[in-house]
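User: For a teaching handout, I'd like to show students what a predicted protein-ligand complex looks like in token form. I'll give you the sequence and the SMILES for magnesium ion. Please answer with just the structure.
Assistant: Understood, here is the input followed by the structure.
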Amino acid sequence: MIYTLTFNPAIDYVMRIGELNLGETNRSESEEIHFGGKGINVSTILANLGLETVALGFIAGFTGEELNRAVTERGIHTDFIRLSNGNTRINIKLKSEIETEINTQGPAITEKDIAKLYKKLEKIQNGDTLVLAGSVPGTLPQNIYEDIMSKLNGRDIRFVVDATGELLTNVLKYHPFLVKPNRAELEEICGRKLDTDAKLTEAAKELQKQGAVNVLVSLGGDGVLLIDEFGRTHRRQAIPGRVVNTVGSGDSMVAGFLAGVKRNYEYALELGIAAGSATAFASGLASKEEIMALCQK
Ligand SMILES: Nc1ncnc2c1ncn2[C@@H]1O[C@H](COP(=O)(O)OP(=O)(O)OP(=O)(O)O)[C@@H](O)[C@H]1O
Ligand SMILES: [Mg+2]
């Protein structure tokens, strides 16, 4: 089973507005509502590809119930912890000539709630995968990914970590099966510009030396670089196409990679790139048909 963890899921309320005038009453031309969060995005692509997945995390209030309903409808098993106060957040995205985002705080998570999470994590068995994706809310201990991995250490669990900075570097000693920084995140970690493949390879190998089993560096429209567990370097170009919205491309790539890795790393890369690019070419997260169409290219 592939579990994903999303601390602070969100409902995105996207409004298209011809012209945005601050301090006045504006009218939107259209609205869309998207349910997500990085872990949920990974689960969504896995479910789209026909894999079984459980979304873990925290929800609250009526928005949380609606998020749970919408996520379940995608064919994802959910096992969210319900917080006693507040509401799952709604983030506002205003699309006019320029884009304005207002991201909201989200409900408070208490120590008791964290204890409930650890209880749920107990269910994860040998051979399962746990995806830890995204940032940790500022109100929580910032070593929580580390704590989770140390508590589950010793079990044969594949950890996937898609996080930035110390959140990522602090877990390398627990040998995560996969880490997936993008170029900017890898540059931030190693503190230098990585503008050539040789420099990227060197930096990715440093993460491997520190403990990561596989290091997948996503490069947006420039494709992807993988240092696999055998130390082999794979470099692939992205699939060309018309970009609509790249949000969630990285999460899609992680899901595609996990779906493909049962076969081998070549196929994992192929499916990862196809899923990442298919999402970049779609308005939301890609469907199975959209992903498989690119995979055949
Ligand atoms: N403009 C693009 N054209 C084609 N493929 C793309 C494009 N942008 C992203 N992709 C595909 O998606 C993969 C992941 O994208 P990217 O490197 O932007 O991830 P990311 O920065 O982690 O994104 P996010 O965190 O927002 O999900 C890329 O490696 C590539 O295969
Ligand atoms: Mg990312």
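For the handout, you might add this sentence: The CA atoms of residues 171 and 259 lie 23 Å apart.
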